[in-house]
Amino acid sequence: MNEQGVTSVLLFGGSRMRNIWIWVFIIALFMIGECIRKVSLNKLLKAIYEAAYINKDEEAFHLLVVSPQAKMLMSDATRLIMQLNFYVANDQEEKVVKIVEKMKKIRLNKNNQKAFYSIAIGYYAEKERTDTLDLINHMKKAIENTQDGELQMLLYDCQLTYDIYVKKDISKIHELQQLLETDIDANAKSVYQYRLAKLYKIANNMDRCQEMLKLAYKNTASKQAKKKIDRILDGEMELL
Fold it and tell me: What is the 8-class DSSP label of residue 90?
């Protein structure tokens, strides 16, 4: 090989090595950036949780959720769901409705759809709001082309919740009893047992109502749910 050929090979090899190192550098920067993003996100999520559920500081919670850092690290849908969950937990109905109306206007991915509709429809139904069915119909339209079994099951569950809490349809007692005979986990059983207790109360069968409440208490892993059931069993039946 002549001198010119050797020079060309060396130049070509050097150029290729430079390209490799550029790509290595880019990948390293991406990995470092992603690591920093995850650390920052985890730190922010911890601060939001502490403000909302430990310190119960609504002002601090709101400032964190709408902060430039939150807007950079999280989607609008995620931040709205955080606010929705907070206002539901604190039973601030007017603020819940405002967040729901905002969320109805934005496009949601599958995970956000599951979170939004389960929280919002569950709350609307328990409040016996007349617009619960409107929200269910909104969900139907949003997922009409989906083949996702979890979303379809969620829609069924939301309709069942509406039938129990808003329509007060005691014919659903048999359907709930059948659901309890299926292979579901303890927390799901607790939810259906609680709903059965609601229907038995409507049917004025207080013995069965209390029986279902005790079973729901036994099966739930939620401390908040246990406290509520305790209060109901102690005589605060209006909570059911």
Answer: T
